[in-house]
Amino acid sequence: MTILLDTATIHNIPTLTLVPEGAQHCPAIFFVHGFGGNKETGLSLGYQLAQRGFAFISFDAWLHGERHDALLEQAALPEHGAMYPPDSGLDTFLLFYRVIDQCRADVQTLIDHLADDPRLDVARCGVTGLSMGGYASYSILANVPQVQAAVPMIGVPSFTRRWLDLLDECAFSNPAWAAALDRVAEQTQKNTTFVAAIDPSEKLKAAAPRALLMMNNDFDSDQPKHYAIECYRELRARYAACPDRLRLNIYPAGHTVTPQMERDAAEWFVTHLLDQSR
After folding, report:
1. pLDDT at position 276
2. Which residue, 7, 35, 205, 252, is most buried by CB atoms nearer than 10 A?
């Protein structure tokens, strides 16, 4: 099989596409990389998916790759509007959420633009990504109706809960940080309102029974698995009539994507997108 790779810029979004030669109406899989990464991160998984008959579309998230901006590394600096102790990571985490929300908008933009591409089927597409891309995959599944299958990897579905937990971790671990948080309580409430507005956890219930494979790892302290476990428990009732369309896989690894995870992701899309379209 010959697999074609092309790059383009679509409405200021740099993209990388892998597609089988001669493809006609292939289901499209969108890939979102991690924080600090770029569209090339997904090439290994993209190659596997293209081999299986999918069109794979990876893109540089806002502030990343060809869209790089110094704000990505300088979010904790006061000149960029930072308000929290620099070492707490809270300002960077807020930027993380802003990038995720832009990824959701970018995927919708790409779907709309590619709707007339004869190689692609974007009416029934999928999404996957790792870490930040895992968060974004939950958001995209919850908000973009054309997405019929998702594989969020080493991410968290509960945006508000994660943000509130980080605030508590900072306050409980460092008295100086606790005092600093008290001084910006009003702004923190506004930030929490923003995070809650983009939180996909409730919308995921309405997205059922679209196929969702949640992937987390046992030894991941960066994005702990318990958020996914709690979400999975809440979603099971929504998938009672089709339990094969919801799964939580927990792997013996840290904050990384293993070859087995990539293979499982590819198989999930084959089962729930490719086989369903035949």
Report:
1. 63
2. 35
Query: For 5-44, how does the pLDDT look when each residue is reduced to its tens digit (9 = 90+)?
Result: 999 999 999 999 999 999 899 999 999 999 999 999 999 9
> Of 141, 135, 106, nearest to 273 (Cα)?
141
Residue type (1 letter), 166: L
Chain-centre distance of CA 156, in angstroms? 9
Domain-located, residue 188: no
CB-based contact 231:180 (threshold 8 Å): no
pTM above 0.70, yes or no: yes
The CATH number covering residue 264 comes to: 3.40.50.1820
Which residue did the predictor score with more confidence, 95 or 274? 95
Domain annotation covers residue 24: yes
**Is residue 207 in some structural domain?**
yes
- Specify the number of domains making up the chain: 1
DSSP 124-193: EEEEEEETHHHHHHHHHHHH-TTEEEEEEES--S-HHHHHHHHHHHHHHH-HHHHHHHHHTHHHHHHHHH
Paired strand residues for 199: none
